[in-house]
Design goal:
By secondary structure, the protein is α/β, with parallel strands linked by helices. The chain has eight helices and 13 strands. The strands form three sheets. Strands 2-1-6-3-4-5 form a six-stranded mixed sheet. The chain has a five-stranded parallel sheet with strand order 9-7-10-11-12, covered by helices on one side.
């Protein structure tokens, strides 16, 4: 136990890989079938639902079957966790645990879901890829046995534990990218996939915002865009994780569709003393939409008024 963070070396841990369930997760068990909490990233409410049997078709509360693969001679920190394929959750809920493990002297390997952005983050933070045990979608439904495992709990998104761990690494980082010569002070982070924000590009341009599309940049480039920005305007999405790179006293304006909001960004903003404003689509006439998928609009007057009043002139 350290500053409210629980960690322990355990022997004989089973990992049931569910690469397509809950954004990817590795459900961890002790040898006696006890379900460990770490895999669900501190979500006590979700863990309680599992114990109540709500996901019994996916998560078994009994000893797992014989493993597909055994890691007998290695010490592994199991970070193939809930939503491990997602950029935001990897940044704010996986990297904090990995960096904490580094800070307490862990020198084993890390079990992670594979992604290109995960590879980039490891390079940014100086983690040798030889120390990574990658788990891919092809490993779905396999049972892995780890003889020696580091279990970490006590972190939750936006907690006073994970964010300081990330900040300790971020604050002293040297410039991460030299390929871009200048960065805008007013940054519009534009979504191009699902859940796009429509109809306000011209307003943002009139206030001097320049557009950045995350899919066109590396993780290092995205980090530098956020680090240099005085004001960021972004529809909620994976790029919000880059708020961790912003400076104290800057500002972020985040938009959401009707009937679906998320408080992840405000946790980071509050910790880093970043000014925050949330803009939400009107609920009128939007009851038939899927708020996590469908495109949406925000009142143009609301956007203009926010930019006028929210320290942007």
């Amino acid at each position: 136990m350290e500053n409210g963070i629980y960690y322990e070396m355990l022997d004989d841990v089973y990992v049931h890989v569910k690469a397509r369930f809950l954004g990817g997760c590795g459900i961890t068990y002790k040898a006696d079938g006890t379900l460990l909490k770490g895999w669900c990233n501190g979500r006590q409410q979700f863990y309680n639902k599992v114990l109540a049997g709500e996901y019994s078709n996916v998560i078994q509360l009994t000893s797992p079957p014989l493993p597909d693969k055994i890691y007998e001679d290695e010490t592994i920190c199991i970070l193939a966790r809930m939503w491990g394929h997602n950029y935001t959750h990897f940044t704010l809920e996986i990297m904090d645990k990995l960096l904490f493990a580094e800070s307490i002297g862990f020198r084993g390997r890390y079990m992670l879901f594979h992604s290109s952005f995960a590879e980039e983050f490891l390079r940014l933070f100086g983690i040798d890829e030889k120390r990574i045990l990658w788990i891919s979608a092809e490993d779905d439904d396999k049972i892995l046995f780890v003889k020696h495992a580091l279990e970490i709990e006590g972190f939750t998104l936006g907690s006073d534990k994970g964010l300081p761990t990330l900040e300790n690494y971020v604050k002293d980082m040297k410039p991460l990218c030299t390929s871009i010569q200048t960065y805008p002070a007013r940054l519009y982070v534009k979504r191009i996939g699902r859940r796009k924000l429509l109809g306000i590009d011209d307003i943002l341009a009139s206030f001097g915002f320049e557009t950045m599309i995350p899919e066109e940049h590396t993780v290092a480039e995205e980090a530098e865009y956020f680090r240099h920005a005085d004001v960021v305007f972004l529809p909620h999405g994976a790029a919000m994780a880059n708020t961790i790179f912003m400076r104290k006293g800057t500002a972020i304006i985040e938009t959401f569709p009707a009937n679906w909001t998320n408080l992840m960004t405000i946790h980071v903003a509050h910790y880093k003393a970043i000014n925050y404003r949330m803009l939400v689509e009107s609920c009128l006439g939007n009851n038939q939409k899927n708020p996590q998928v469908d495109d949406y609009t925000i009142s143009r007057l609301l956007v203009q008024h926010t930019l006028e009043e929210y320290a942007v002139s």
